[in-house]
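A sample follows:
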Amino acid sequence: MRKTFDAELQELNYEMIDMAAAAEDAIDVVTESLASGDDEAAKSAVEVTRHMDEMERDIENRCLRLLLQQQPVARDLRTISAALKMVTDLQRIGDQCSNIAEISLLLTGQKQTSALAHIRTMSQKAGVMVKRAIFAYVNRDTDAARAVIALDDEIDELFRTIKAELVELIVENRQEADQAIDLIIIAKYLERIADHAVNIAQWAIFCVTGEILG
């Protein structure tokens, strides 16, 4: 019985890694679309995130089967409950990437601003946070998880910088207000992606220690 349960847990781990890889792909493609203004990259990001809905359902179903059909010990319960929480964060990362991609389609051909350069940097940093958070979960590396949490301050500072620049732009040139508002929304989505990466890192720590951070 334990051997079967361990095999199921391993399958759960593989499914989590696959969904995390999809989230990473979505972030990479969104970053590319923001950097290049490539419509096809933005459309590709939307397609990647659609598949994540099915992955979320499969993982949730496996977790529920493990809880209902087996008798998991405390460590196993931490792994399963963390997976249920993390899959929600991954799905939301996918949703936010899709939203960013759809907005970026509206920006094609528009005037470049210094804020857009900061947004690209923010996108890259958020992507790094997600990748490192997943690494921490897969490898049960609490030091890597805590490093991800520490990076969130950089994202918050970038968001404040971008918001201040764009508010100033709106005041100085009302004709560029629509684009500025779109960019603020994108920056906010990136801030949320970073927050989800922090959540994943916190659940990675919980898997190992049982400690709930927040």
The radius of gyration is 19 Å. The helical segments are 2-36, 39-69, 74-107, 114-139, 142-172, 177-209. The chain is about 90% helix and 0% strand. Residues 115 and 165 are 7 Å apart (CA to CA).
